[in-house]
Amino acid sequence: MERMKGPTGGCDRTDHPIAPENRAPHFDELLDAWVLSRYADVLAAFHCSSLFPAGLNGKAPSDPLAGDDVVKMRRETRDALSPLHLRVWRKGLASSARALAQKLSADQPVELINSYAQPLCLILAAMVTKVDLQETERLRALAEPIAASAAEPYDAALKSSAKAANALIRTSFRRGPEPLRESGFVALAHTLPCLLANAWFALLESPEQWAVLRSEPRLLEHAVEELLRCSGLPRLLFRRAIQDIKVNGAHIRKGERIVLNVRAANRDPANFPHGDQLDVRRTRIRHLALGAGSHSCVGAGLIRMAVISITRPLLERFSGATLIEPIKWRGGSVYRFPESLRVQFDKPRS
Length: 350
Hints:
single chain, alpha+beta, CATH 1.10.630.10, 12% strand, globular
C-alpha cells in the first residue's frame, strides 16, 4: 500500500483527530503514523503479534521478557477477575444499584452521573481493588489528572499532572495484580462512569430502544454488546511495530507508530449496517471496543457485568427519561463523554 498524506488540519483536541470515515490503511504525515480505520484492518492489528501497545509517542517493548511479563500479568489479572469473584461483586453491586435506583425521583430532575453512576462505580472500585470505601472519594479526586491525561494524551500539561498523581496514589494500593491497583481504581472510578454516560446518552437519544429493553429485560445481557459497540469509550488506540510487517496491504516498518481508529471500525458499514444507529436487537455484534485476540481487555467481563448491573435497575424502575439540558462534552481525542446527564424520569411502573 502506498504512503498517502492523511487528512489535513492536524489533531483537533476538542474532537476526533482522525477523520471518522473508513479508509484503506494510510500513512498520515501530520500524525507521523499509520492510520487504520476499517473494521478488518483494526481487527488484524489487534491479532498481530508484532504490534505492541504504546503511548502517544512512547516506545513499544522490544525486550522479549517484557512480553512474558505482560502474559504473566494478564494471567494473574484473569485469576483475580474469576467468574466466582464476578458473581460475588455482581450480587453486591446489583443490590446497591437497586437500592439507589429506588431513591431516584420522577417528580424532579436528576443528575444521573453524580447521583447514580459515580457512587456505584466507587462501590465497585472498593470491592475490586480492596480499598476502604470511605477512602474512595479522596482517591477519586487524586486520580482526576490520570483520567484526564488518558482521555487526551496530546496534552503535555495533563501528562505531567498525571505522572505526579500516579506517584501520590500508588501508595494506597498494595494488594492484588498490578492492573487491579491504582490503574484498576482509575478505570472503575473514572473511566467506567464515562462509559455509562455514553451508553445512557445513546439510550436517551433512542427512547424506543429504552422501551425495548424495558419490555424485554433479558435482552440486556445481549444488548450490552451493542451499547459497547455504539458507545464504547476507545476512539483511538496506539501501537508500535517491533519489526517490519504487512497488515492488509500496508507495509509497516519496524518502529513506526500505528493509530487504530476504533470508533470508525465499530461503525464500518461493511460489518455493521446502519452503524451509527443504536439497535439493541442487532445480531453478530463482534465489536472492537474491548480489543480482540491477545490484546483484548482483560477486564472485559468486569466491564460487562458492571454496565448490566448498574443499568438494569433504571430500566426496571422507569419507563423512560428525557434529557432536560444540552450535553457538554468532556475528554479528548482518545475518549469523550457527557459531563453530566440531567434528566427527567418518566413515572415508575406501578
